[in-house]
Amino acid sequence: MIAARFISFWTGFCSLSLEIAWVRLYGYANNSTPKAFAYVLAIYLLGIAAGAQVGKRICRLPARGAIENAAVIALALCASIAAASPWVYLHSRQMALDDLMAPMVVFLTAASLSVLFPITHHLGTPQRLTDHTSAKGRHFSRVYVLNVLGAAFGPLVTGYVLLEYLTITQVFPALATVVAMVALSAWLMHGETSRKVALGSTMAGLTLALWFVHLGWQDPARLARSFATVGERTVVAMHESRHGIIAIAEEPATPRQPFVDHAVYGGNVYDGKVNVDLERNTNGLERPLALHVLQPKAKRVLVLGLSIGSWLTVVEGFPGVEEIDVIEINPGYLDLARKYDPQKRALEDPRVNIVVDDARRWLQYHRDRRYDLILMNTTWHWRANSSMLLSREMMQLVSRHLSGQGVVAFNATGSTDAFLTASAGFQGGSALSELRLWRELGPVYRRGKRRGMGCTEKGHGGRKAGLPRRQHQDTGIFAGSVFALE
Fold first, then answer.
1. pLDDT at 475
2. φ, ψ of residue 380 in degrees (nearest 5)
């Protein structure tokens, strides 16, 4: 019974931990789209259901020793699957078979562990207590509670500890090693049963897990680098933590661009470029520069979202700026930004105050702060959780931190819905002026008479304002919106 409770806890722990790992890997491989979590969850639940059905059939075996052997073999099999499945997914992606293999490996990962759920409850409940229902229920509940506790601790430990200190390349074999050690412990705790097959499968699973552990420690960023969608660029730096995966890719010099440049990818999605040279200007630097024209007397500036720090470097050079607060949720960007001299100088400027926090939470806790210029360096509107920054509630929250002549700008990334939502968030604002000089900038609002370009329920009025519509895909050009309040 003790062995059953022990296995029940660790199967719950490893099952939910592997689900968290798969959400991270599949989400990263698919450009951080919202569907990634739902897709992995659905496949994982199907795998759990199928595995439990297999476990129920195993519980019908007449010999207890056969059931115990099956439990050990199932754990050993899961260790092998957990260690090898990310690499199977990677190679299937390279052969354009990932749509088939991704659900298969996620399904097998979940099913191989969920086989243990009915088995542990069966082994953990003494079958001789047929006349004592309450005693059987007590033993059954203890096995179940330990499984629930493991399932609760697994995501916490994996999400906040393992993903913080290990890379995704290392997390999978680390969890596989835990499963293999549980299999070995279960084999040692079982008594007089035939052990050869169970021992062989356990040692095979442990050996495979340790082999991938070795590979993970040799090249910790191998999986993330292999899944990076950087085109013809070469990944030169990576940072992985519980907040996400950041990659920097080098663009070699070409006849059209006769210098080396670096692009930043957060969550496997284009995030901007390192370049802050206005003569070369591969980073759309006219957009933050336009804000100085709109608010030439800005003294207090708030930047929500640092990224690699290129836009901060531009804003830091505005004449008259006395204080810049920067809110960034992922500290990995700070580590990478310090690798480049212009960004490093901007971060070390005594006027710049860096805060690692969630922007919404920080704004809610600092209601008294007012700014002349707020720059929201938001990501693509179709990414997971982007609505947290592009929502009406966020726009209303930001508007309450503007000074009397304050201006706020954000990246709408070509989304007409983002324009419309921001218009609702800044009710009472009207157009500041026609923006014909910066075609990436959208509507500008100031209380008073509306003049120029705006946003209606039918979408962005760029055509009427004389601004050509553009397709903003992987070009590094963002569509933005600027709003002003008096």
1. 25
2. -60, 140
334 and 404, same domain (yes or no): yes
Instruction: Read off the DSSP letter of residue 304.
Output: E
The predicted pLDDT at position 435 comes to: 32
Q: How many domains is the chain partitioned into structurally?
A: 3
Q: What is the pLDDT of residue 458?
A: 37
- Identify whether residues 149 and 248 lie together within a single domain: no
**Per-residue pLDDT tens for 59-79?**
888 888 888 888 888 898 999
- The sign of the torsion formed by the CA atoms of 416, 422, 425, 430 equals negative
Enumerate the β-bridge partners of residue 408: 374, 483
Both 189 and 246 in one domain: the answer is no
Give the CATH number, domain containing residue 201.
Answer: 1.20.1250.20
Query: What is residue 5's predicted lDDT score, i.e. its pLDDT?
Result: 85
243 Rama class: left (phi>0) / alpha (psi -120 to 50) / beta: alpha
Pairwise CA distance, residues 182 & 300, whole Å? 57
Q: What is the pTM of this model?
A: 0.83
Same domain, 200 and 240: no
Residues 94 and 230 in one domain: no
Strands 323-328, 300-304: pairing kind: parallel
Instruction: Give residue 231's domain range.
Output: 226-270
Query: Residue 121 carries which side chain, given as an amino acid letter?
Result: H
pLDDT less than 50: residues of the chain = 192, 429-486
Domain harbouring 391, CATH code? 3.40.50.150
Answer yes or no: do 451 and 352 share one domain: yes
> Under a CB-based contact definition with an 8 Å cutoff, are residues 423 and 445 in contact?
yes
Q: In this structure, are 209 and 262 located in the same domain? A: no
Do 57 and 176 belong to one domain?
Answer: yes
From 204, 221, 238, give the residue that closes a domain.
221
User: Comparing C-alpha atoms, which of 250, 275, 287, 282 is closest to residue 265?
Assistant: 250
Give the containing element (helix H, strand E) for 135.
helix 133-157
Q: Where are the beta strands (DSSP E) in 159-316?
A: 234-241, 244-251, 261-266, 269-273, 300-304
| Encoded tokens for 182 | 């549980």
- Any idea what DSSP says for residue 441? B
| Structure tokens, 359 | 């922007």
Task: Please write the tens of the pLDDT for every residue from 417-458.
Answer: 877 777 777 665 443 333 323 333 444 444 333 333 333 333
